[in-house]
Amino acid sequence: MKTTALTDLHISLGAKMVPFAGYNMPVQYAGVNAEHDTVRNAVGVFDVSHMGEFILKGEHALDLIQKVTSNDASRLVDGKIQYSCLPNGKNGIVDDLLVYRIDEKTYMLVVNASNIQKDWDWIAQFNEWDVEMKDISDRTSLLAVQGPHAAAALQSLTDIDLKSMEYYSFKKGTFAGINNVVVSATGYTGAGGFEIYADNAHARAVWDAVFAAGEPYGIKPIGLAARDTLRLEMGFCLYGNDIDDTTSPLEAGLGWITKLTKQFIGSDLLREQKQQGVTRKLVGFEMLERGIPRHDYPLVDEQGTVIGKVTSGTQSPSLKKAIGMGYVSIAYAKEGSEIYVLIRDQKVRARVVKMPF
Amino acid sequence: MNFPSELKYTSDHEWIRVEGGEAYVGITEFAQRELGDIVYIDINTVGDEVAEGQVFGTVEAVKTVSELFMPVSGTVLEVNSELDASPELVNTDPYGKGWMVKIAIADISSIGTLLSSEDYAAQVGA
Protein backbone atom coordinates (compact mmCIF):
# COMPACT_ATOMS: atom_id res chain seq x y z
CA MET A 1 0.00 0.00 0.00
CA LYS A 2 1.19 3.53 -0.78
CA THR A 3 1.84 6.07 1.93
CA THR A 4 1.94 9.85 2.00
CA ALA A 5 4.84 11.81 3.49
CA LEU A 6 2.73 12.11 6.66
CA THR A 7 1.40 8.56 7.12
CA ASP A 8 3.67 7.81 10.11
CA LEU A 9 2.65 11.08 11.71
CA HIS A 10 -1.07 10.22 11.42
CA ILE A 11 -0.43 6.85 13.05
CA SER A 12 1.54 8.47 15.88
CA LEU A 13 -1.36 10.90 16.40
CA GLY A 14 -3.66 7.91 16.98
CA ALA A 15 -5.62 8.16 13.73
CA LYS A 16 -7.65 5.22 12.57
CA MET A 17 -6.09 4.29 9.23
CA VAL A 18 -7.87 2.73 6.24
CA PRO A 19 -6.84 1.81 2.72
CA PHE A 20 -8.23 4.42 0.32
CA ALA A 21 -7.42 4.53 -3.39
CA GLY A 22 -4.36 2.40 -2.70
CA TYR A 23 -3.06 4.68 0.07
CA ASN A 24 -2.96 4.14 3.83
CA MET A 25 -5.01 7.16 4.88
CA PRO A 26 -6.36 8.59 8.18
CA VAL A 27 -10.14 8.17 8.27
CA GLN A 28 -10.70 9.49 11.76
CA TYR A 29 -8.87 11.04 14.72
CA ALA A 30 -11.18 12.28 17.53
CA GLY A 31 -14.46 11.18 15.92
CA VAL A 32 -16.31 12.17 12.78
CA ASN A 33 -18.85 14.49 14.46
CA ALA A 34 -16.24 16.40 16.46
CA GLU A 35 -13.95 16.72 13.42
CA HIS A 36 -16.83 17.84 11.23
CA ASP A 37 -17.74 20.56 13.76
CA THR A 38 -14.12 21.69 13.98
CA VAL A 39 -14.09 22.41 10.25
CA ARG A 40 -17.53 24.07 10.18
CA ASN A 41 -16.82 26.28 13.20
CA ALA A 42 -13.04 26.72 13.49
CA VAL A 43 -10.28 25.21 11.35
CA GLY A 44 -9.03 21.72 10.56
CA VAL A 45 -6.33 20.11 8.42
CA PHE A 46 -6.67 17.19 6.01
CA ASP A 47 -3.76 15.33 4.48
CA VAL A 48 -5.02 14.77 0.95
CA SER A 49 -1.63 14.05 -0.59
CA HIS A 50 -3.12 11.01 -2.31
CA MET A 51 -4.69 13.36 -4.88
CA GLY A 52 -3.01 13.39 -8.30
CA GLU A 53 -1.33 16.37 -9.95
CA PHE A 54 -0.33 16.63 -13.62
CA ILE A 55 1.56 19.52 -15.18
CA LEU A 56 0.72 20.22 -18.84
CA LYS A 57 3.15 22.51 -20.57
CA GLY A 58 3.60 23.80 -24.08
CA GLU A 59 2.28 25.99 -26.87
CA HIS A 60 -0.80 23.78 -27.18
CA ALA A 61 -1.45 22.91 -23.55
CA LEU A 62 -4.75 24.78 -23.67
CA ASP A 63 -5.79 22.97 -26.85
CA LEU A 64 -5.33 19.62 -25.15
CA ILE A 65 -7.22 20.73 -22.05
CA GLN A 66 -10.05 22.15 -24.15
CA LYS A 67 -10.32 18.87 -26.00
CA VAL A 68 -10.53 16.60 -22.94
CA THR A 69 -12.44 18.75 -20.44
CA SER A 70 -16.05 19.92 -20.43
CA ASN A 71 -15.61 23.39 -18.93
CA ASP A 72 -14.19 26.27 -20.97
CA ALA A 73 -10.56 26.59 -19.84
CA SER A 74 -9.97 29.45 -22.29
CA ARG A 75 -11.76 31.67 -19.78
CA LEU A 76 -9.03 31.10 -17.18
CA VAL A 77 -6.42 33.75 -16.48
CA ASP A 78 -3.12 33.24 -14.65
CA GLY A 79 -3.73 32.31 -11.02
CA LYS A 80 -7.31 31.13 -11.56
CA ILE A 81 -8.80 27.67 -11.09
CA GLN A 82 -11.73 25.94 -12.72
CA TYR A 83 -13.80 22.92 -11.70
CA SER A 84 -14.25 20.66 -14.70
CA CYS A 85 -14.67 17.06 -15.78
CA LEU A 86 -13.27 14.63 -18.33
CA PRO A 87 -16.22 13.32 -20.37
CA ASN A 88 -15.70 9.78 -21.65
CA GLY A 89 -17.32 10.26 -25.05
CA LYS A 90 -20.22 7.97 -24.12
CA ASN A 91 -22.14 10.38 -21.89
CA GLY A 92 -20.16 9.27 -18.87
CA ILE A 93 -17.39 10.83 -16.81
CA VAL A 94 -13.75 9.64 -16.66
CA ASP A 95 -13.09 11.88 -13.63
CA ASP A 96 -13.79 15.30 -12.20
CA LEU A 97 -10.86 17.64 -11.67
CA LEU A 98 -9.51 21.11 -11.03
CA VAL A 99 -7.67 23.00 -13.77
CA TYR A 100 -5.07 25.55 -12.59
CA ARG A 101 -3.69 28.10 -15.05
CA ILE A 102 -0.11 28.79 -13.99
CA ASP A 103 0.64 30.78 -17.13
CA GLU A 104 -0.50 30.89 -20.74
CA LYS A 105 1.42 27.71 -21.57
CA THR A 106 1.43 25.90 -18.22
CA TYR A 107 -1.48 24.27 -16.41
CA MET A 108 -1.86 21.96 -13.44
CA LEU A 109 -4.64 19.37 -13.34
CA VAL A 110 -5.65 17.98 -9.95
CA VAL A 111 -7.39 14.61 -10.20
CA ASN A 112 -8.79 11.95 -7.91
CA ALA A 113 -6.29 9.53 -6.38
CA SER A 114 -8.18 6.46 -7.57
CA ASN A 115 -8.08 7.71 -11.16
CA ILE A 116 -4.48 8.92 -11.59
CA GLN A 117 -3.41 6.24 -14.07
CA LYS A 118 -6.78 6.16 -15.82
CA ASP A 119 -6.81 9.94 -16.31
CA TRP A 120 -3.20 10.03 -17.44
CA ASP A 121 -3.82 7.37 -20.09
CA TRP A 122 -7.05 9.03 -21.16
CA ILE A 123 -5.53 12.49 -21.60
CA ALA A 124 -2.31 11.17 -23.18
CA GLN A 125 -4.20 9.42 -25.99
CA PHE A 126 -5.60 12.77 -27.16
CA ASN A 127 -2.27 14.56 -26.96
CA GLU A 128 -1.85 15.08 -30.70
CA TRP A 129 0.18 18.27 -30.10
CA ASP A 130 2.99 16.67 -28.07
CA VAL A 131 2.16 18.80 -25.07
CA GLU A 132 4.68 18.00 -22.32
CA MET A 133 2.89 16.03 -19.59
CA LYS A 134 4.40 15.48 -16.16
CA ASP A 135 2.87 13.45 -13.34
CA ILE A 136 4.06 15.07 -10.10
CA SER A 137 1.60 13.17 -7.87
CA ASP A 138 4.17 11.03 -6.09
CA ARG A 139 6.35 13.93 -5.04
CA THR A 140 3.59 16.39 -4.19
CA SER A 141 1.97 16.71 -0.77
CA LEU A 142 -1.36 18.43 -0.35
CA LEU A 143 -2.79 19.78 2.89
CA ALA A 144 -6.33 21.14 2.96
CA VAL A 145 -6.69 23.71 5.74
CA GLN A 146 -10.41 24.29 5.96
CA GLY A 147 -12.77 26.30 8.12
CA PRO A 148 -13.86 29.87 8.86
CA HIS A 149 -10.65 30.59 10.79
CA ALA A 150 -8.29 29.20 8.13
CA ALA A 151 -7.12 32.58 6.79
CA ALA A 152 -6.47 34.00 10.25
CA ALA A 153 -4.72 30.83 11.39
CA LEU A 154 -2.34 30.74 8.41
CA GLN A 155 -1.65 34.43 7.78
CA SER A 156 1.47 34.60 9.94
CA LEU A 157 3.11 31.94 7.75
CA THR A 158 3.09 33.84 4.46
CA ASP A 159 3.27 37.25 2.77
CA ILE A 160 0.39 36.25 0.49
CA ASP A 161 -2.66 38.21 1.64
CA LEU A 162 -4.92 35.25 2.36
CA LYS A 163 -8.08 37.16 3.28
CA SER A 164 -8.15 38.94 -0.08
CA MET A 165 -7.77 35.77 -2.14
CA GLU A 166 -10.79 35.02 -4.28
CA TYR A 167 -12.41 31.59 -4.17
CA TYR A 168 -10.87 29.41 -6.90
CA SER A 169 -7.69 31.44 -7.22
CA PHE A 170 -4.15 30.51 -6.21
CA LYS A 171 -0.74 32.05 -5.61
CA LYS A 172 2.73 30.63 -5.57
CA GLY A 173 4.94 32.00 -2.82
CA THR A 174 6.84 31.47 0.38
CA PHE A 175 4.89 29.63 3.05
CA ALA A 176 6.32 28.66 6.44
CA GLY A 177 9.71 29.71 5.12
CA ILE A 178 9.53 27.32 2.16
CA ASN A 179 9.71 28.61 -1.40
CA ASN A 180 7.45 27.65 -4.31
CA VAL A 181 4.48 26.59 -2.24
CA VAL A 182 1.13 26.83 -4.02
CA VAL A 183 -1.61 28.28 -1.85
CA SER A 184 -5.02 27.70 -3.38
CA ALA A 185 -8.33 29.13 -2.15
CA THR A 186 -10.21 25.91 -2.76
CA GLY A 187 -11.54 22.97 -0.78
CA TYR A 188 -14.16 20.27 -0.65
CA THR A 189 -15.96 21.27 2.52
CA GLY A 190 -17.90 24.48 1.86
CA ALA A 191 -16.29 25.87 5.01
CA GLY A 192 -13.76 28.11 3.23
CA GLY A 193 -10.02 27.77 3.52
CA PHE A 194 -6.97 26.83 1.52
CA GLU A 195 -5.23 23.92 -0.10
CA ILE A 196 -1.45 23.94 0.16
CA TYR A 197 0.73 22.11 -2.36
CA ALA A 198 4.35 21.45 -1.40
CA ASP A 199 7.08 18.94 -2.20
CA ASN A 200 7.05 15.83 -0.02
CA ALA A 201 10.37 16.88 1.49
CA HIS A 202 8.63 19.88 3.07
CA ALA A 203 5.35 18.23 4.04
CA ARG A 204 6.25 17.72 7.69
CA ALA A 205 7.60 21.26 8.06
CA VAL A 206 4.43 22.71 6.55
CA TRP A 207 2.23 20.51 8.79
CA ASP A 208 4.14 21.52 11.93
CA ALA A 209 4.09 25.22 11.04
CA VAL A 210 0.36 25.11 10.27
CA PHE A 211 -0.42 23.46 13.63
CA ALA A 212 1.79 25.87 15.56
CA ALA A 213 0.22 28.91 13.87
CA GLY A 214 -3.29 27.46 14.18
CA GLU A 215 -3.09 26.51 17.83
CA PRO A 216 -4.81 29.66 19.15
CA TYR A 217 -7.64 28.93 16.69
CA GLY A 218 -8.19 25.39 17.91
CA ILE A 219 -6.76 23.74 14.80
CA LYS A 220 -7.14 19.93 14.64
CA PRO A 221 -6.28 17.10 12.23
CA ILE A 222 -9.32 15.85 10.30
CA GLY A 223 -9.87 12.45 8.69
CA LEU A 224 -11.48 11.36 5.44
CA ALA A 225 -14.76 10.43 7.17
CA ALA A 226 -15.45 14.06 8.06
CA ARG A 227 -14.29 15.12 4.60
CA ASP A 228 -17.12 13.00 3.24
CA THR A 229 -19.84 14.34 5.58
CA LEU A 230 -18.69 17.92 4.92
CA ARG A 231 -18.77 17.57 1.13
CA LEU A 232 -22.09 15.75 1.21
CA GLU A 233 -23.77 18.54 3.21
CA MET A 234 -22.68 20.86 0.38
CA GLY A 235 -23.98 18.52 -2.33
CA PHE A 236 -20.51 18.17 -3.87
CA CYS A 237 -20.17 15.06 -6.05
CA LEU A 238 -17.76 12.30 -5.11
CA TYR A 239 -16.32 10.40 -8.05
CA GLY A 240 -17.09 6.69 -7.79
CA ASN A 241 -20.23 7.41 -5.75
CA ASP A 242 -22.28 10.17 -7.34
CA ILE A 243 -20.57 10.33 -10.72
CA ASP A 244 -18.75 7.68 -12.75
CA ASP A 245 -18.29 6.28 -16.24
CA THR A 246 -22.04 5.72 -16.58
CA THR A 247 -23.39 9.08 -15.41
CA SER A 248 -23.49 12.12 -17.65
CA PRO A 249 -22.55 15.55 -16.32
CA LEU A 250 -25.99 16.76 -17.37
CA GLU A 251 -27.68 14.09 -15.25
CA ALA A 252 -25.35 14.89 -12.35
CA GLY A 253 -26.28 18.57 -12.24
CA LEU A 254 -22.90 19.51 -13.71
CA GLY A 255 -24.40 21.36 -16.68
CA TRP A 256 -22.71 24.49 -15.33
CA ILE A 257 -19.28 22.99 -16.08
CA THR A 258 -20.40 21.50 -19.41
CA LYS A 259 -19.90 24.24 -21.99
CA LEU A 260 -21.64 22.98 -25.11
CA THR A 261 -20.57 26.13 -26.94
CA LYS A 262 -17.18 24.46 -27.48
CA GLN A 263 -16.12 21.14 -29.03
CA PHE A 264 -14.65 18.47 -26.75
CA ILE A 265 -14.59 14.68 -26.43
CA GLY A 266 -18.22 13.60 -26.38
CA SER A 267 -19.68 17.07 -26.81
CA ASP A 268 -21.93 16.04 -29.72
CA LEU A 269 -23.54 13.25 -27.70
CA LEU A 270 -23.99 15.56 -24.71
CA ARG A 271 -25.60 18.18 -26.97
CA GLU A 272 -27.99 15.53 -28.18
CA GLN A 273 -28.75 14.49 -24.60
CA LYS A 274 -29.43 18.09 -23.67
CA GLN A 275 -31.83 18.53 -26.59
CA GLN A 276 -33.73 15.35 -25.80
CA GLY A 277 -33.66 16.01 -22.07
CA VAL A 278 -32.22 13.71 -19.43
CA THR A 279 -34.35 10.84 -18.13
CA ARG A 280 -32.84 10.80 -14.64
CA LYS A 281 -31.23 13.36 -12.40
CA LEU A 282 -28.99 13.46 -9.38
CA VAL A 283 -30.95 14.99 -6.50
CA GLY A 284 -30.47 15.67 -2.83
CA PHE A 285 -33.04 14.37 -0.36
CA GLU A 286 -33.63 14.41 3.37
CA MET A 287 -35.23 11.65 5.38
CA LEU A 288 -38.66 12.40 6.84
CA GLU A 289 -38.70 9.20 8.91
CA ARG A 290 -35.94 7.54 10.88
CA GLY A 291 -33.34 5.84 8.70
CA ILE A 292 -30.01 6.61 7.10
CA PRO A 293 -29.63 6.26 3.33
CA ARG A 294 -26.48 4.41 2.20
CA HIS A 295 -24.73 4.00 -1.16
CA ASP A 296 -26.70 1.63 -3.47
CA TYR A 297 -29.92 1.48 -1.42
CA PRO A 298 -32.87 1.50 -3.86
CA LEU A 299 -35.09 4.57 -4.18
CA VAL A 300 -38.75 3.67 -4.72
CA ASP A 301 -42.14 5.33 -5.16
CA GLU A 302 -45.16 4.88 -2.90
CA GLN A 303 -46.04 1.59 -4.62
CA GLY A 304 -42.53 0.29 -4.09
CA THR A 305 -41.51 0.55 -7.75
CA VAL A 306 -37.81 1.32 -8.15
CA ILE A 307 -37.25 4.91 -9.38
CA GLY A 308 -33.52 5.18 -8.75
CA LYS A 309 -30.79 4.58 -6.24
CA VAL A 310 -28.83 6.24 -3.48
CA THR A 311 -25.30 7.31 -4.41
CA SER A 312 -24.25 8.91 -1.09
CA GLY A 313 -25.86 9.17 2.32
CA THR A 314 -25.09 9.96 5.91
CA GLN A 315 -26.38 11.39 9.13
CA SER A 316 -25.54 15.08 8.70
CA PRO A 317 -23.52 16.21 11.73
CA SER A 318 -24.44 19.88 11.19
CA LEU A 319 -28.13 19.45 10.41
CA LYS A 320 -28.69 16.51 12.79
CA LYS A 321 -30.74 14.68 10.19
CA ALA A 322 -30.19 12.00 7.61
CA ILE A 323 -29.45 13.24 4.10
CA GLY A 324 -28.54 11.66 0.80
CA MET A 325 -27.94 12.06 -2.89
CA GLY A 326 -29.15 9.75 -5.60
CA TYR A 327 -30.37 9.43 -9.15
CA VAL A 328 -34.15 9.43 -9.67
CA SER A 329 -36.38 9.27 -12.73
CA ILE A 330 -37.01 12.78 -13.97
CA ALA A 331 -40.63 12.70 -12.73
CA TYR A 332 -39.33 12.63 -9.13
CA ALA A 333 -36.51 15.12 -9.52
CA LYS A 334 -38.48 18.23 -8.61
CA GLU A 335 -37.86 19.83 -5.25
CA GLY A 336 -40.49 18.68 -2.79
CA SER A 337 -41.13 15.31 -4.48
CA GLU A 338 -41.83 12.55 -2.00
CA ILE A 339 -39.72 9.47 -2.50
CA TYR A 340 -38.86 6.45 -0.38
CA VAL A 341 -35.56 4.81 0.48
CA LEU A 342 -35.64 1.04 0.80
CA ILE A 343 -33.77 0.32 4.03
CA ARG A 344 -33.60 -3.34 5.06
CA ASP A 345 -36.79 -4.04 3.04
CA GLN A 346 -38.65 -1.16 4.67
CA LYS A 347 -39.90 1.87 2.74
CA VAL A 348 -38.70 4.97 4.57
CA ARG A 349 -40.12 8.37 3.55
CA ALA A 350 -37.84 11.09 2.17
CA ARG A 351 -38.23 14.39 0.32
CA VAL A 352 -36.24 15.85 -2.55
CA VAL A 353 -34.63 19.12 -1.42
CA LYS A 354 -32.35 21.78 -2.85
CA MET A 355 -28.61 21.47 -2.31
CA PRO A 356 -26.55 22.55 -0.42
CA PHE A 357 -28.60 20.90 2.29
CA MET B 1 -8.63 -1.52 24.94
CA ASN B 2 -10.89 -2.57 27.75
CA PHE B 3 -12.63 -5.98 27.68
CA PRO B 4 -13.95 -6.64 31.21
CA SER B 5 -13.20 -10.18 32.37
CA GLU B 6 -16.66 -10.71 33.91
CA LEU B 7 -18.25 -10.51 30.44
CA LYS B 8 -18.40 -13.06 27.63
CA TYR B 9 -17.84 -12.15 23.98
CA THR B 10 -18.70 -13.20 20.43
CA SER B 11 -16.52 -13.04 17.35
CA ASP B 12 -19.16 -10.61 15.96
CA HIS B 13 -18.11 -8.12 18.69
CA GLU B 14 -21.06 -8.40 21.08
CA TRP B 15 -20.63 -8.78 24.83
CA ILE B 16 -23.03 -10.45 27.24
CA ARG B 17 -23.37 -10.05 30.99
CA VAL B 18 -25.31 -12.93 32.62
CA GLU B 19 -27.48 -12.24 35.67
CA GLY B 20 -29.29 -15.45 36.63
CA GLY B 21 -31.38 -16.62 33.66
CA GLU B 22 -31.25 -13.18 32.07
CA ALA B 23 -28.51 -11.20 30.46
CA TYR B 24 -27.58 -7.80 29.09
CA VAL B 25 -26.09 -7.55 25.61
CA GLY B 26 -24.14 -4.76 23.93
CA ILE B 27 -21.21 -4.20 21.59
CA THR B 28 -17.56 -4.09 22.56
CA GLU B 29 -15.24 -1.14 22.80
CA PHE B 30 -13.49 -2.43 19.69
CA ALA B 31 -16.82 -2.46 17.80
CA GLN B 32 -17.84 1.06 18.80
CA ARG B 33 -14.42 2.35 17.78
CA GLU B 34 -14.69 0.68 14.41
CA LEU B 35 -18.19 2.07 13.84
CA GLY B 36 -17.42 5.62 14.97
CA ASP B 37 -20.09 8.04 16.20
CA ILE B 38 -23.30 6.09 16.67
CA VAL B 39 -26.53 7.76 15.55
CA TYR B 40 -29.19 5.26 16.57
CA ILE B 41 -29.93 1.67 17.39
CA ASP B 42 -32.76 0.00 15.50
CA ILE B 43 -34.23 -2.98 17.37
CA ASN B 44 -37.70 -4.34 16.53
CA THR B 45 -37.39 -7.77 18.11
CA VAL B 46 -38.72 -7.17 21.63
CA GLY B 47 -40.79 -10.22 22.62
CA ASP B 48 -39.23 -12.34 19.88
CA GLU B 49 -37.23 -15.51 20.34
CA VAL B 50 -34.03 -15.03 18.41
CA ALA B 51 -31.57 -17.86 17.79
CA GLU B 52 -27.86 -17.62 18.45
CA GLY B 53 -26.07 -15.84 15.62
CA GLN B 54 -29.29 -14.36 14.22
CA VAL B 55 -29.84 -10.62 13.81
CA PHE B 56 -31.71 -8.87 16.66
CA GLY B 57 -31.22 -5.33 15.36
CA THR B 58 -28.92 -2.89 13.62
CA VAL B 59 -26.68 -0.08 14.76
CA GLU B 60 -26.37 3.00 12.56
CA ALA B 61 -23.25 5.14 12.81
CA VAL B 62 -22.57 8.33 10.84
CA LYS B 63 -20.49 6.53 8.27
CA THR B 64 -21.71 2.96 8.38
CA VAL B 65 -24.33 0.48 9.50
CA SER B 66 -23.85 -2.88 11.16
CA GLU B 67 -26.12 -5.75 12.20
CA LEU B 68 -26.37 -6.94 15.79
CA PHE B 69 -26.21 -10.68 16.45
CA MET B 70 -27.55 -12.68 19.40
CA PRO B 71 -24.66 -14.15 21.42
CA VAL B 72 -26.89 -17.05 22.55
CA SER B 73 -30.46 -18.14 21.78
CA GLY B 74 -33.08 -16.37 23.85
CA THR B 75 -36.02 -13.97 24.03
CA VAL B 76 -35.50 -10.23 23.71
CA LEU B 77 -37.13 -8.74 26.82
CA GLU B 78 -36.24 -5.09 26.69
CA VAL B 79 -34.38 -2.45 24.67
CA ASN B 80 -32.31 0.20 26.43
CA SER B 81 -34.66 3.15 25.94
CA GLU B 82 -32.00 5.63 27.04
CA LEU B 83 -30.25 5.04 23.72
CA ASP B 84 -33.16 6.69 21.86
CA ALA B 85 -32.16 10.10 23.16
CA SER B 86 -28.47 9.33 23.80
CA PRO B 87 -27.09 6.81 21.28
CA GLU B 88 -23.59 8.14 22.03
CA LEU B 89 -23.69 6.15 25.29
CA VAL B 90 -22.65 3.17 23.16
CA ASN B 91 -19.46 5.08 22.30
CA THR B 92 -18.77 6.53 25.73
CA ASP B 93 -19.85 3.63 27.98
CA PRO B 94 -20.19 0.49 25.84
CA TYR B 95 -20.28 -1.97 28.76
CA GLY B 96 -22.43 0.15 31.10
CA LYS B 97 -25.06 2.68 30.05
CA GLY B 98 -24.55 1.66 26.43
CA TRP B 99 -26.12 -1.79 26.83
CA MET B 100 -28.58 -2.56 24.03
CA VAL B 101 -30.95 -5.37 24.99
CA LYS B 102 -31.92 -7.49 27.98
CA ILE B 103 -32.66 -11.10 27.06
CA ALA B 104 -33.98 -14.28 28.69
CA ILE B 105 -31.45 -17.01 27.92
CA ALA B 106 -32.99 -20.16 26.44
CA ASP B 107 -30.28 -22.54 27.67
CA ILE B 108 -27.85 -21.26 30.27
CA SER B 109 -25.23 -23.84 29.29
CA SER B 110 -24.87 -22.12 25.89
CA ILE B 111 -22.84 -19.40 27.66
CA GLY B 112 -19.97 -21.86 27.89
CA THR B 113 -19.28 -21.67 24.14
CA LEU B 114 -18.68 -17.89 24.14
CA LEU B 115 -15.26 -16.21 24.15
CA SER B 116 -13.51 -15.10 27.32
CA SER B 117 -12.11 -11.57 27.45
CA GLU B 118 -8.59 -12.93 26.76
CA ASP B 119 -9.79 -14.93 23.75
CA TYR B 120 -11.69 -11.96 22.37
CA ALA B 121 -8.79 -9.57 22.94
CA ALA B 122 -6.52 -11.97 21.07
CA GLN B 123 -9.00 -12.17 18.21
CA VAL B 124 -9.12 -8.39 17.70
CA GLY B 125 -5.41 -8.08 18.29
CA ALA B 126 -5.77 -5.74 21.25
UniProtKB/TrEMBL annotation, chain A:
Record InterPro entries: GcvT (IPR006223), GcvT/YgfZ/DmdA (IPR028896), GcvT/YgfZ_C (IPR029043), GcvT_bac (IPR022903), GcvT_C (IPR013977), GCVT_N (IPR006222), TrmE/GcvT-like (IPR027266)
Entry binding sites for substrate: E195
Catalytic activity: N(6)-[(R)-S(8)-aminomethyldihydrolipoyl]-L-lysyl-[protein] + (6S)-5,6,7,8-tetrahydrofolate = N(6)-[(R)-dihydrolipoyl]-L-lysyl-[protein] + (6R)-5,10-methylene-5,6,7,8-tetrahydrofolate + NH4(+)
Chain ranges of the Aminomethyltransferase C-terminal domain: 280-357
GO biological process: glycine decarboxylation via glycine cleavage system; methylation
Gene Ontology MF term list: aminomethyltransferase activity; methyltransferase activity; transaminase activity
Superkingdom: Bacteria
Any one cellular-component term (Gene Ontology): cytosol
Domain GCVT N-terminal: 6-262
Alphabetically ordered keywords of this record: Aminotransferase, Methyltransferase, Transferase
EC number: 2.1.2.10
Enzyme class: transferase
Keyword Glycosyltransferase set for record: no
Subunit structure: The glycine cleavage system is composed of four proteins: P, T, L and H.
Function: The glycine cleavage system catalyzes the degradation of glycine.
Assigned protein family: Belongs to the GcvT family.
Protein name (database record): Aminomethyltransferase
Species this chain originates from: Hufsiella ginkgonis
Gene: gcvT
TrEMBL record, chain B:
Highest rank taxon of the organism: Bacteria
Record-linked Gene3D superfamilies: 2.40.50.100
Cofactors demanded by this protein: (R)-lipoate
Keywords: Lipoyl
An example Gene Ontology CC term for this record: cytosol
Chain positions with N6-lipoyllysine modification: K63
InterPro entries (alphabetical): 2-oxoA_DH_lipoyl-BS, Biotin_lipoyl, GCV_H, GCV_H/Fam206, GCV_H_sub, Single_hybrid_motif
Keyword Kinase tagged: no
Annotated Lipoyl-binding domain residues: 22-104
One GO process term, biological-process aspect: glycine decarboxylation via glycine cleavage system
Note accompanying the cofactor annotation: Binds 1 lipoyl cofactor covalently.
Family membership noted in the UniProt record: Belongs to the GcvH family.
Subunit note: The glycine cleavage system is composed of four proteins: P, T, L and H.
Job description of the protein: The glycine cleavage system catalyzes the degradation of glycine. The H protein shuttles the methylamine group of glycine from the P protein to the T protein.
The name this protein goes by in its record: Glycine cleavage system H protein
